[in-house]
Amino acid sequence: MKIGILGVGFIGETLVRKLSAAGHDIRVANSRGPETLKDLAGQTGATAVTTAEALQGIDAVILSIPLNKMPPLKALLTDVPADVAIIDTSNYYPLRDGHIAALDEGQVESAWVAEQIGRPVTKAWNAVLAGTLRKNGKAKGEAGRTAIPVAGDDEAAKRIALDLVEATGFDAVDAGGIAESWRLQTGSPAYCTEPTVEELKLALAKADKAAGPLRRDAGMAVVLTFGDDYNNEDLLRVNRAATRFHRLQ
Question: How many other C-beta atoms lie within 10 A of the C-beta of residue 248?
């Protein structure tokens, strides 16, 4: 599959590495230009390109960029065919991103993203820590495989996202449509807690829409007290505690 990946933060870079290793044809772009991606391209076999070039002749595009970078993509996506799956990995943290009124008032994050870019999106890889994504991938059927939720309204696009999540080494779980994707946003027990498939299904069912933003901000406030001295396990413990996630025995 030909995939454009926009953004090479912790999640974006890891997806470049994993999906390239899985045999996909990856074009990767960032805001600083392809010359800054030569090392990553050389290590993975991906092709470093401009953002416009990353959107040409592809089957799917993965948006792994900050929320405030989404609106300018609208013009670039105008000529991208309607059957190209657009996958959103973003999350909203007001303490990091600044306040977005519509999201503070309860609009679902990926619905807001879709409005900004003028295209429907499928939500995936938002509910996994970068360290988890990098280290915890396992072969299909292997015990202890972590599950990742995927939400979207276009069934064909969702199928692509589900298959790509599996290709990164995780069990993909259909979490319904975008209207219900608040269940995998920050502050949900499904968010970055390393659940199994059964634990994820339970976490999605137990999500509390009103409590989610409060738990998100409480967790972020704790993380900020760590300064730069924290790791993936610290973030995992904070997310599990803040969202009242419980492992099944």
Answer: 8
Question: pTM surpassing 0.90?
Answer: yes
Q: Is residue 36 part of a domain?
A: no
Alpha helices in 64-192 (DSSP H): 73-77, 94-97, 101-104, 109-117, 130-135, 155-167
> Token pair of 47, please?
């092709």
Q: From 27, 13, 36, 107, select the one nearest 67 (Cα to Cα).
A: 107
Domain range for residue 134? 66-243
For the record, the structure tokens of 11 come out as 């999640």
Count CB atoms within 10 A of the CB of residue 229. Answer: 7
pLDDT in tens, 108-160: 999 999 999 999 999 999 999 999 999 999 999 898 899 999 999 999 999 99
Concatenate the DSSP letters of all residues of 133-164 into one string: HHH----TT-TTPPEEEEB-S-HHHHHHHHHH
Strand partners, 28: 5, 48
Q: What is the spatial distance between Cα 120 and Cα 88, in angstroms, rounded to a whole number?
A: 10
pLDDT tens readout for residues 64-98: 999 989 999 999 999 999 999 999 999 999 988 89
The whole-angstrom separation of Cα 159 and Cα 157 is 5
What span, in angstroms and rounded, lies between the C-alpha atoms of 219 and 213? 10
Distance from C-alpha of 102 to C-alpha of 79, rounded to nearest angstrom: 27
Residue 42: inside a domain, yes or no? no
Residue 11, in any domain of the structure:
no
